[in-house]
Fold each of these.
Amino acid sequence: GVGVYLGLLKSCKQMNEKVPRELTKLYGSLSEEQQLNRDLAELLVGSRLLLVPEFDALLVKHLQGPRFAHALELAVQLIRQCVVAKPVVSPLEMAGTLDVLSKVASRPGAPEAIQQLIERVRSMFPAKDAMKAPPGAVPARKGESDGLRQRVIMLFDEWTRIIDAPAGMKYHASFAQQVQQSGFLKDDETVEHMFGILTEICVAHCLSSASGAGQGQFSFVAVDALSRLIVMLSRFVGERGASGMSVRAGLLARALSAATTVLHRHASERNIAFNSRPYFRLFAGILHELSIPDPQLDSSNFAVLTAFAGLLQATQPSRVPVFCFAWLELVSHRHFMPKLLLAPNQKGWSLLERLLTAILRFMEPQLRNAELSDPIRLLYRGVLRVLLVLLHDFPEFLCDHHFMLCDAIPSSCVQMRNLVLSAFPRNMRLPDPFTPNLKVDLLPEISQAPRIVVDAGAAIGDTQLRADIDKYLKSRMPATLLQDLKSHFLYSPTDAAANGCRYNMHLINAVVLYIGMQAIQQLHNKTSQLPVQVNQGVPMEIFLWLVAELDPEGRYMFLSSVANQLRYPNNHTHYYSCVLLYLFSESSQELVKEQITRVLLERLIVNRPHPWGLLITFIELIKNPRYSFWSHSFTRCAPEIERLFESVARSCMGATKPGEEDLTSKIAASTASA
C-alpha cells in the first residue's frame, strides 16, 4: 500500500513541480510525533518529495527542542541512508542538521557512531587538497560563526564535484536552486558574506600552493572554480529572460564587491608582501566566463560592464597601489575594454576615461620630474601601449576625451600627450601638412567643430570666476578680472608643495578651452566660416595679457594648454594655431617667442606620432616671412640648437642635403601612421 501511494506522489511530482512545496507545507502541519517518524521521513526525503532545505530547517528546530533524542535518531538515520549510503541528497541541503551533528560529535563522551558518521560525510568530499587552504590560513572573522563557514565550505566542495560533470548545465541549474533554497542568496549581506569567505579560502589555497613565501608555481584550481561559480549563480538566479536581468547583474556586482573587500583587507595587512596574482586570475576568469554568449547574462550586457568598471574604480592604483599592474591588465583586457567602447550610444566611454585618468593621476607625482623607478617606468610603458591600442582601434575615443586625458598627463610626458592629440576620426583623410602652399583655412574640415564631451565651464569649478569671465567677454568688466585670473592660477603654498608646481594646470587648461570656445562661437555668429584673422576681440586681449604678464613657469603652462588644442583639422585646431602664431608675432618679448618655439619644438623632436595641427603650425611659423623666425637670437644660441633648427627647416622646406636624415619622410610617416 505504501509503495502505491509513493508511486502516485512521484507521478504527481513529474506532472507538477509544485508538489514538493505543497507536501512540505503539509508535512510541517503534522504533529511532532508524525514529523519525527523515521520511516515516513526517510521515504519522503529519499524520494525527494519534500523540499530538503526546508525539511532540514524543521529538523534543526526539533534538535534544539524538547524532543532532541527522537530528532537525533531521525537525523542520524537520514544522513546515513540518504546522504552516505544512497546519496540522493546533497550534504549542502542538510547543512543545518550536519552542523548540529558535528557539534554533538565534538562533545566529550559523544556516541562513536555519530563521530564515525560525520567523518564519513567529510570523507565524501574530494580529497582535493586543491580546494582546501592550510589549517589556520583563513581564520573566522569577528561575528562569523563556524557553522556558516562550514556550510560555505561544504557548498564549494559540492560545486567542485559537479563543475565539470557531463550534462553540466543540468547539474548547475539544480545546484543553483539548492544554493537559493539554502538561504545563501536571501539578502545582500548574506551573499557578500558567502563570497567573501570563498574568496579568502581560494586565495589562501592559491598562495599556499606555491613553495616558499609566494615563490614557485601557483595552483589556480580553487580560484578558477570560484570564478565559474560566481558566473553560474549570476546566470541562474532570478526569472528567466530580460525581467530577471537586474537581479542577475546585481548578484554579480555583490560577488565582485565581496572580492574587492577581501582584496582591500589583504593589501592593507600584507603591504608589499601582497600578491595580486590570485585576484587577477579570479577577475580575469570571471571576464572569460562572461565572454561566452548567454541570453541570461554575459559581458555584452552593460550592467555587467558597469559592475566591472565599479570594481576597477574601487581598486584603482591610488587606493591599492600594490595591485596596479594587475589592475592595468584588467582595464585593457580583451573581454572588457573593447566591449566597454562598443557599448551602445558610447555609454562606456566615460567609464573608461575615468579609469585611464585614475592611473595617470596616480603616476603623476613620479612622472612629474621624469625620475622614474623601474616599476613606474614599466607601468608607464604599459599605459603607453594601452593608448596606442586606442589610437589604432578607437581613435574617436581619444578625440572626444582628449581634454580630460591631457589634463591628467604630466607636462614632462610629451610623447604620451602627442599620442592622444594625434588621434583623428577614422572617416577623415588628413591633408598632407607638407603640401606646398597649403591653404589651411580653405580645407572643408577646418570649419567643423570637434566633439568635446567635457563641459569646459564646469571644469573651471569656481562658478563666480566663470560668471566673471562671461561678463568680461561681453563688456570687459570687471576690470580686475585679468589680475584675478592670475591669482586664481596660482596654488596656495601648501598646494604648490603637494603638486610640485606653483600653477594650477587643471584650471589653466579649463580657462583656455572655455575662452577659446566662446571666441569661436562669437566668430561663427558673424560669418559662416572661421576667418583667418582672429586677432580682434576680448578673448585675444586676455591671451595677450596672460602671455605678457605671467612668469616663465605660468607662461609655459599657458602655452602648453593652447598647444593641447592643436589636433586634427577642425575649427578648434585652426583657432588655437592662429592664436599661437599671433602671440608670436605680436609679443615684444624675445623670451615669449622662445617659449612658444620651445612648446612646439619639444613636441616635434620626440618619437612619432605628431599631431597634424602641431605640424602645420610649426611649418607656418618657420616658413612665413611675417614671423621673421630666423632673425631671433634663440635659433642660434648654441651650435647643437642651430643644427637642430636647420635640420627641421630643411625637412619642412623640402631641401634635404644628400646623406642627411630626411626628417620630412619621418614626420610625414608619423602623421600617416596616426
Amino acid sequence: MSAPAPSRRSAALALEQLTAEIRSELYLLLDDVGGQICLVLDRGIGGQLDHVVPGGAEALRSHGVRFVRSLRPELDAVREHRVVYLVRPTVAAMMLIAGHVMNENMAEVTPRRFHVFMVPRTTVLCTHVLEEAGVLPHVRVGAYRLDAIALDTDVLSLELPDSLREVAVDGDPTALECVTQFLLRFEQLYGTPREVRTFGTAARGVAERLARADLRAERARCRARSGGDGVATAAGPRDFGGVLPQCNLSDAADARARRDVDTLVIIDRLADLVTPMVTPLTYEGLVDEVMGGIHHGCARLPRAVVADDADETASAAAADADGDRVAYALNSRDALYAEVRDLNIEELGARLGDRAKAIRAAYDAFRARRDASITEIHDFVKRIPGLAAAYQSLQTHIRLAECVARATDARAFRARWHAERTFLEGEPAFDVIDDLLATREPPFSLLRLACLASLTMGGLRAARHDALRRGVLQTYGFELLGTLHHLERVGLLARARDATAAGLVLGGGGARTPFAALRRALRLVVADVNSRQPSDAAYVSSGYAPISVRLVEAIAAPDGAALAAALPQVPGLPHLAYAPRAFSREELGCAFDDAGAGVLAAGALSRASPGSPAIPGAKPVLVVVFVGGVTYAEIAALRLLSRQPDFPFTVLVAATAVINGARLLQTLVMEMENSLQKTHATA
C-alpha cells in the first residue's frame, strides 16, 4: 500500500464519488469492529486499496488499524489486537483463516472473535468451509464491496482477472453478478444510461441481470412506500450469495432522472478474442507485455530503471541481478506518462527527446539571463521542484523505453509481429509456429500465436490441429493437456469444422469466413496507418484495429452499413440495443423473457445518436464495459476515438480486469501434477 493513486479531477465523470463511497464503506466496517486492529489482506487487495485510501496505512491508523499483514499460513502474534480479514471468496483463503482461528484460540482461555470480510461478496461455499472447519462460531462473516477501482481518470477495473474462465469454462456466473452489482452502484451515482447496447452472450446476461435487479428494487420501493424503512436490497439470494448489498431507495428512484451517462456499451470478451492475441505497439501496452505486467496501475521495475542518478544506477543494476524490483505507479498523476503512454513505439523516442530539450531549454534560458530581476529569480526557484520532478520522470521513462526498445528490436519480436500480421491478413504463417515449437520457446508464447492462427483462419484443419496438439504435449509435457482442453472449450484453439459449427470462433483466410467478413466490414487491417500522428485506431498495433473498438466506432457512425455487415459475424447473437428510460421497469424486466427479447434487439442496427450532455459544451459520456477483460491496446484506441472531434462521445472504460494475451491464457491453465516426475526427483 504505497503507490499513489491517480488524480480523478479531470475525469469525464466525477469518479471520486465512487471512490469515496467505497472508502466510506471500509471505514464503517473498521469502526464497527473498533479497538486496535490487525488488518490481514489477501493477495492483490492491498494494491486495490491504494486507489481507495489515498493516505495508505496512515489513513487507516485513524480507524484503529495498527498492523497490516499479508494473508499467509502463519499469523504473527497479535493477541492484543482484533483481526480483520479482507480476502477473496476462495476456498484456499478460508482454509488459511480456519487455521489461524484454531491456532490462536487453542492458546486462549477465552476464544477470540475474528472478522472476515470477503471482497466483493460472500459465498455460501466459503461460509460452509468455515463451518466444516468448526470455526464459524468464532468468525464474523461479511462482505466489503470493493467492486471497482479507478485505475485512471478514464479507466475502471473490477480486478477480476479470472472472469473469462469462470464464465466460459466453469459455467460460474459470479463475475456477471459482480459486474451487475457494480453497474447498479454506478447507476445510483451517475444515473441510468439513455441507451444500452450489448455485444456477446455474457454482455446480454449482464444487461438482463441489471434490468431484473432494477425491477426488484422498484418493487421493494413500492413496498417501502406502504410502510418500510426506505432501504431495499438490489439483488436476490441467488444473485449475491445470500448476503445482499443495500441501496438507498431515493437514490434508485432518482437514477433515471440523472443524465451523467448517455450510452452504455457492454462487450463480452468472447465477441473479440483476436485482440488480446495481437501484440500491442503502444508504450503502455509494451510495458505491460515486456516488463512483467502492470497490476493495479503499478509495474514492478528494476531499481536501475527508477534510480535517481547515475551513481545509484550501478548499484541498482547489481541489486536487480538478484531480482530486486520496486513498484512504480503508472497513471496520469505522472504528466509525462499521461502524454506518452498511448504513443506508438515508433513515435516514443522522438517525443521523449522533445521533452528533454524543453526541460534543458528552461534551465538554459534562465542561466542566459544575467540581468534577471529578484522577482524573476524567485519565480524560477519556485519552478525548480516541478522541473526536478519532470526531469526525474523523464529519466525513468527514457530508461524504461530503452528496456522496451531492446525487446522490440529483437529479431524474434519482429518475426512474431510479421507472423501476426500475416494471419490477420488471411494468409497462413504456420512455419513460424513450427519454429517456435522446434526451438522450445515458452509454451504460452507458442500457444498465443497458435490461438491467433485458429481465430483468424476459421479454426485449424484437423491434421494441423492434431499435429500441433501432439507437438505441444511431446515438447512441454502432458501437464498442458487440460490447458489445451480449456483453450478449445473457450474457442481459442479449435478445429476448422468445430469452429464453424460452434459459431464462437472468428474465422479468416477464406472469403466466406466470419473474420474475413469482419475484416472487410470494419476495416480491421489498415495498410497505410500513420503511427506517428494517428487518426485511426489501427495505429495501436501498426495496422490492426481492435474489433471491439471498431464496433464502438460503428454504432456512432452516420452510415450503418458497416454495423449491419459486421453484427451477424460477431459471436453471441442476438445483440441488443434499447433505451431503458423508454420502458417501465416492469416492461423492461419482462422484455428479457423469450417472448419479448426481439423488442430489445430491434434497434441493434441503428445508429447511437448522442443525447444532450450533462455538462453544456462537453461531449456526452459513453461507458464501455468489457466482461472478460480489456487490453491496453483497446484503451489507447478508445482514448484516440474519444479525442477525435467527429466522434460524438467522451469514452469511459470499465472492465473486469486489464489483461494481455499471456495473462488471458494463464487464467485458462488447468493445473495437473506430474507424480512420475515428483517420484523421480525424490528417488
Amino acid sequence: MQLTLGEAHHGPVTAVVLRGNDVHAAIHGRLHTYDANSGKLQRTRTLLPCRVHGLACNDDGALLAWGVDAVGVARGDAVTTIATETRCVAAAFASSEDVATLTSAGAVERRDAATLARRGATAALQTSGELRCGALRVAGELVKACGGDAFGRIVVESVGRDEAHGGVITSIAWAGEDVLSTSDDRRVTRWRINGDALEKVWTGVGHAARCWCAVAVDAYVVSGSQDGTAIVWRAGDGARVATLRGHAGKHVRCLGGCNGYVATGGHDGTARVWSLRDAVAAQTARRVRAPETTAPTAVCVLRDAVLACFASKKLWRLDLVIGEWRDLGVHGAARRLALDAREDRVALIGGGGSSVVILEVESGSSTTFSTGAAAAVSGWWVGDDLVVASVDRRCCAWRDGACVATLAPVADNALGAVTAVASGGDGRWVVGDSRGRVALIEDGALLWRADAHAKSAVLAVQFANGVLHSFGRDGKMATFEVDDDAPHLASIQPLHVSVSGVCDDVTWGVVGAELVVLDVATNMRRATVAGTNRGRPHGVRVAGNSVRAVAAASDDNDFLIVESETKCVTCGAPLVADGVAAAVTLESGRVVLAGGGGDLAEYAADLREQTRRCSPAAHAQRALARVGDVVIAGSVDVVATWRAGRRVASLRLADADALNQRLTAAAAWDADGGLSYVVGDSAGALRVVKSDRVVATLAWDGAPVCAAAHAPLGDADLVIAGLSTGTIAMWELRGTGTSLALAVAPHAAGVGALAARRVDPDGVLIVSGGDDAK
C-alpha cells in the first residue's frame, strides 16, 4: 500500500500565505486554513499530490499552489490540479482569468485560471543554468520575473548579476520594484535595477545558519532561517530591529505577510502570526538616564519600578509610570539586591562585609544585621526567611534579624560553598554548591545529594512540581525528576548562556554585549537587551507572558529597559523539534514521537494535540519501542524507560563509546510480566536487557543496526536486526543464552524498518523495508 504524500496531515510547513484574517499553511500537499486571530483550524484541502513549494492568493479568495511537478488552483471546495513537464519555481495570478507560472528554464507560461490549460509561453529570463527559485510580479498586463540559481547568480528581467551571493540562492522575492534574495551564505540582500545593472541596496547579516526565505511587509523585510528564527530588518537601510523566536527546533522555511503582520512556517508543523509593530516595540530598548554619575552596582526589577544601588552607597527607585527617580537614602554599595516573592522587602547584600540591610519597599524603613561570616555573602529569599551564604562555607536562614536555621551539611563538608538556594517545599531548601552538586535540605539535615555539573559551580536552582532545574557555570541546564525524595537525572541541555538568575519559567544571563532571557522549557529567547556586558548589573521580572528586563548600559550609566510580551498566534499543533526521528503507537492509541533534536512527546491518535511532553534528551532518541503504554527511548548511550510521561528507569551502557556510537534501533516485549528489550547501535551491536540489566550482547558483521524487531518462537524469543548492508540477522534467546538462527540478505541497501509476529504453530512472519525501495 502506497501513501500519497499529498494526503499527509502532519509535517513541516513548506509554504504559507497571510490574507486578511486567514492563514493558509501547506503541509506536504495539503492546505490548512486557520483563523489568524485565534489560530483555530477552519478547513483542510488537498491541493497537490506532491509537496507544496509556494502559495499565492487572489482577491476573490482563490488559492494557487505549486510544487516540483504540479500546479493547483482551489476555489472553495473545487480544486483543479495538473502535472507540469518542467519544474515550476514560481506562480501568480495574472488576472481573474489567467495564471502565470515560471519554469526552471526561465519561461513564463500563461494558463487558464479555471482549467490550468496552457495558453502560451515567453522566454522571460535569460539563464545560464537551471533556476533554483523564482518570483513573479504582476504589473497591469505585464508579468515581471526574477530568479536565482545554484551558483549564486540572480536574474531580474533582462538584468543579471553573477556572484550575488557566496552560495546557492535559496529564495528570491519582489519588494515593490526592488528584489530580495537569500542564500545559504546566511545573508539576505535587497537589490535595485539601475539601467542595465543590478545594484545592492543593503545586505542583512545576522542568521546563524542558511537563510531560506524573505518577504517585504510594509516598512520591514523579514527573513527566515535554518536557525529557527525570523529576523526583522528595516526596509530602507537594512537595520536589524527585531528577532522572532517561537518555532521549536530548526528551520523557518517560509513566510507570508500583509498589513503589518507576518506569518512564519516552521519544521515543527506550525504557522505563527506576528505583529511586526509589537515585535519591534518589544525589542527596542528604552534608555533611562541614571540619577547620579557613580557606577551602578546592583539592580532589582519590581512590578512598576526599578531599584538600583550605586557605588555612592545610595539606593534609588525609578517609577516606570512617571519615569522619575526617588532617593531612598544611603544603605551601602550592595553587590546584590534580593527581592522577596511578594515584592514587599528587598535585601541589600554584599555592601559591607557580612552585613545585610532589609528594606521595606513602600515605607523605606530598613533594618541591618550581621551574619557573623568572615567573608562576603550572597542571599536568597525562601518564603519569609532570607537564606544567607558566604564563601567561607557558612549558610543560615534569618528571620527578622535572628538566625532560625543553619545548614549543617556545609560544616560537615558534605557540600562545597553554597552558591544557589531555592525553596524545596514544606520547610525544605534546595541548594547548589561550588562543586556542581545539588542537594535537598530539611532542618539542617541532608536528605539527598546529586551531581549536576562536573567541576562547575551551580549558579541557580529551581524546584517545582517534582522537577528540579540546575543551572551551572558550564552553560548547561540539568533537569532532575524527584520521586519519593530521590532525584533522577532526566536530561542535560546546553543553554549557551552563563546563567545569573532564574524566575518562574525563564532564566537569564549575559552573552557578549546582550542580556538574554530564555524560556526554560524550550530554550528559546523571550527577550534581549543589547548594549550591556557581563560586568554590568541587570535584573528581570516575569508576569505571565510579559518579561521586563533591565540592564546597565556598557558605555555610560544609563539603564536599558525592554518590556517584551509574546505577541504570537500559533496555528497548528507543534510536533517534536527538528523532524520526527522515530515513532511508536501506544496501546491506548496515542502516538509517541521522538524528534531529531532530542524531544520526546506524546500526541492524540490524530496528532492534532500534544498530550504530554517528556524531558528532552541531548540527542535524537532514534531507538524507540513500546510495550503497552511503556516506552523505551535510547539516545547515544543511555536508554530511558517512560510511563505516563515520567522516567521510571534509566540504563547507561558503560561500554558504549559516546563519541563514535549511537543507539539506533530498539524492540521491546513483555516477558512474564517484566519488561525486556533489545537496543542496537551504529557499531553493529545489539544488547538484550532484562530487569534493567544487560544479559547478552549480539553482533553479526559490525554493520550499523538500522531496525530491530522481536517475536516469540516456540519456547524462545526471536530477536531480529536489520543492518545497513541489507542483511537481516536473527537470534534465538532462551533466558540469557543466545544462538544465531538465520541471516539473509533480501535488500541491496540498508534495512530501515522491521516488523514481526508469531504465525502458529511455530513460525514467525517478518516484514522488512529497505533503502532499495523494496
